[in-house]
Amino acid sequence: MTKADVIIIGAGPVGLFAVHQLGIKGLKSVVIDNLDKAGGQCIELYPDKPIYDIPAIPECTGEELTKNLLEQIKPFNTQFFYNERVDEVNQEKDLWVIKTNQNNFFKAPNIIIAGGVGSFEPRKLSLKEAEKFEGKSVFYAVKDKNFFKKKNISIFGGGDSALDWALELSKFSKINLIHRRNEFRGAPHTLSEIKKMEKEDKIIIKTPCQLEAIEEHENKITSISVKYDDGKIERIKTDIILSFFGLIMKLGPIAEWGLNMNKKTIDVNPENFETNKKGIFAAGDICSYPGKLKLILSGFHEVAL
Ligand code: FAD
Is the beta carbon of 247 within 6 A of some atom in ligand 1? Predict the structure, then answer.
């Protein structure tokens, strides 16, 4: 059980600035986010896009803004819990108790929901059998790369995450990089490194094909079958499947916490941004009040109040 003065749900720009505003008042916060890093939409959707409407910063990218917000809150030594989605919010006397999908519990008298447009969730493999191996041998993110050492890993995807992890894990494991198209979408430098590893037989590229079946023995994956566009099926020795098909945004469990909702946003009192539940506040893109603007600047103002 982690205790704090305030639990902040969401490490987007608004959640990060909330840490600052609480910190200067001497309040200790913890931050929970479903993603593996801070930054919310700025980092997931537009890390390189310029932002022109942050006061006193004529221009910065989504990534730079996130970096600066993290720098600004360094003095508060805040604890961040990544890769955890807040699933439940329950009341226990004067305190709120939060439960995450990792079965971790947090307790505080106040919560700030800075959940943006909801939690970013991985787009999952369409093969139904994959579900039962989730968290054991099918993964949509890498939390501890040591777990992936000396394994036969099949990585699915054609973007930066698939390529970056293929390169990193090829240092100590055998990698099959599988993509439904012949072209990859990664940075040119990463692509040339992948080609080098392919020549050294550390990465085997399989395109254009998709996951067709998972073969198992005693509940462990032993191999997978992929189907090429021309109909050919190939069996590949595999212990671990890693899939990087991008993220989807889902409002998720927030809708079930008994808060007054307005479509997919939470109604707040614009004087103090409290919701209909005492001690639960909402700010940023997730909150709704007359005249609300979905801008970073507005979220900063909201957490200040
Ligand atoms: P988000 O950035 O959405 O962060 C919310 C975080 O909460 C996410 O990381 C999510 O994973 C997490 N979360 C949600 N639910 C849960 C849960 N149950 N458990 C755990 N974590 C959860 N605004 C500007 O001011 N200027 C611009 O130039 C600008 N350009 C934009 C360009 C694009 C392409 C887009 C899409 C938006 C742009 N915006 C811009 C809007 C701006 O990005 C948003 O207003 C801002 O990101 C809102 O911040 P937030 O912290 O409220 O939410």
Answer: no
